[in-house]
Amino acid sequence: MSHYDHLDPAEIGKKAWKSASRAAKHMSKHSKIVNPSLEKCIPRFERSEVVLGEFLGSGGFNDVYEVKRIDLVENLEDAEHAKKIASPLQQEHRAFISKHVFRESSQNCRYAMKFLSMDTIGDPGRFCTGAADLVVEAKFLASLEHPNIIKLRGMAAAGTSGFASMEERGYFLLLDRLQCTLEDKIDLWRDYENSLQNDKIGKKRRYFLAERLHVAFDVCASLDYLHA
Predict the structure, then answer these.
(1) Closest Cα partner for 172 from 180, 184, 160?
(2) pLDDT band at residue 88, thresholds of 50, 70 and 90?
């Protein structure tokens, strides 16, 4: 029997909210990475403003969907969390993100939304752990600036209080959508390498080696940045 069993849903939501808030405060106080000035620049969005596309995948606590479009609220007074999105800085950054949902070159969706799955929310223990985990991820990503590290592009305007609603997307992150992971790339390389058996001159092999070395350099650069 879980110690959460005697709690009603509202209390569970508040516990997840408190768990996330404690994790955020601990990070802000003790982490050398967290940068409050960079955090303030991250645009906030209402849940209703972000229209989702296809399901991309799920992890231990979260689901990830592509962002199909962002329809900014026309009248700020109608926004549920107007104070969080009303500043000139927020307005500027919100407008920029909403206008660049698609990549100009490929027209692929540029962003993805990450939020706790309903399975996680339905399990009180995992809900509290997942809420804290997602907030810590947001704190880290908001403070990192490197071309080879995924960027945090937006957050829920509700903040950690969004967990209290126990609704899907009560709290969420907007991230760069990965079109290909390193694991996917390695699989492609393996298949391509098998096709090079007849490359007598070796020109394709040299280009192939250069491509892999370039990726290895980028990975090393991001690791060096994180450990600096």
Answers:
(1) 160
(2) very high
